[in-house]
Write a structure and sequence with these properties.
alpha/beta; Rossmann fold; Rna Polymerase Sigma Factor, Chain: A; 2 domains; 7-stranded parallel sheet
């Protein structure tokens, strides 16, 4: 039987890559639900091609236009709550969580509570509510399979290995567009420069996060919950070529790495096919052609956002939710031209320093911490 799939955020880079994987494996999958925010043209094409049972769009004006254009058996829903309704009402085998930011928390949690496999590409839900998400998975039996290339790499490196023998996991980072830019020149960074990632084609928010290394900081927090690791066992290394996606070092000094070309369709396909591996007609890795592979320690002075993620983990409780929400607000301001690039870590540090953490096993507390962080950050602008 075909695996039934819901894609949360189908018009984003993850969603489009996921649909391409499914397009190449039509006999294995059926797309039963997709969601989007406001990219109507792309969403319309996806509905026409995959004919899902439900298509949900969060933007109200876009919903009215969609209702006029969609024919056939696809049911059109609107609003944030409709994403949860879709997950809860459809018979589904895999939910791909690809919505950027905190908007993905509630539908992803709904999928976990339902007990289905969650292919997790959106790191923010685990950053905000890692304890709640992992506890819910234990109760429901849901499998959370990481899609981020770094966490997918660790997942693969740990396959069959005793977790108690992990010495540390090493998340790799490309270093973004400013790896070689002097710290003294970061005050001149433009939005166009920040959105020009050297390796990955992604949405605006995650691309800015990659340039500040906040994306890697969020991945550190996510790794803690995904792999049940203490913070001191999670390390970050700059690897500009993005060939080694991450590594695990064990007590016997062995290091296992997962390698491949930078293509998100590979970890997406693995999350969908796990524990099997399916043949792919994608470009393979030629190490001779690629040449040398480089590794560096991150520059803490240039990339303070990475240190803030570790600081949030040290504070504990809802501090990670606070940092995540403040970062979302800061990046939105930067994208809107209201703050400078170097203001992002400055504002985040102020918010994190002024916020007392609460218990993170309560969803209301997590959501309230996020709201309070956004409000506090905006008061500093």
């Amino acid at each position: 039987m075909k695996k039934r799939v819901i894609i949360l955020g189908s018009t984003g880079s993850i969603g489009q890559s996921c649909l391409d994987v499914i397009r190449r494996n039509k006999k294995r999958f059926e797309v039963v639900g997709i969601t989007a925010h406001s990219n109507l043209a792309s969403f319309q094409r996806q509905i026409d091609e995959f004919k899902p049972r439900i298509a949900s769009i969060s933007n109200g004006a876009s919903y009215l236009r969609m209702k006029k254009n969609v024919s056939g058996k696809t049911r059109i829903l609107a609003g944030e709550e409709s994403l949860i309704e879709m997950v809860e009402s459809l018979d589904v085998d895999v939910v791909v969580s690809g919505i950027v930011g905190s908007a993905g928390l509630m539908p992803t949690l709904a999928a976990i509570r339902k007990g289905v496999r969650v292919a997790l590409a959106n790191k923010e839900p685990m950053v905000m509510a890692g304890k709640i998400m992992t506890n819910a998975a234990k109760e429901s039996g849901a499998a959370i399979i990481p899609v981020d290339s770094e966490h997918s790499a660790i997942w693969q490196c740990l396959n069959g290995e005793p977790r108690e023998r992990i010495k540390k996991v090493i998340l790799t980072a490309s270093g973004g567009p400013f790896l070689k830019r002097p710290t003294s020149e970061l005050g001149k960074v433009t939005l166009k420069e920040a959105l020009k990632h050297p390796k990955w084609k992604m949405g605006s928010k995650i691309t800015v996060d990659s340039s500040t290394l906040m994306n890697k900081g969020l991945e550190v927090i996510e790794a803690k919950w995904l792999f049940n690791l203490p913070t001191e066992k999670i390390d970050v290394m700059i690897h500009p070529q993005s060939i080694v996606h991450s590594m695990v070092e064990f007590d016997d000094t062995s290091v296992i790495a997962q390698m491949g070309m930078p293509d998100m369709r590979v970890p997406i396909a693995y999350a969908l096919s796990y524990p099997d591996r399916w043949p792919a007609t994608l470009r393979g890795l030629d190490l001779v052609k690629e040449g040398k592979l480089e590794f560096f320690k991150p520059d803490a002075g240039k990339f303070p956002c990475l240190g803030l993620a570790y600081a949030a983990l040290k504070k504990g409780g809802t501090s990670s939710a606070t940092l995540n929400a403040a970062n979302e607000a800061a990046v939105e301001l930067f994208l809107g031209g209201k703050i400078r690039y170097i203001d992002i870590p400055r504002l985040l540090k102020k918010v994190l320093g002024k916020t007392a953490p609460k218990q993170d096993d309560n969803l209301s507390a997590v959501l309230e911490a996020g709201d309070a962080a956004r409000e506090l950050l905006l008061s500093y602008v």
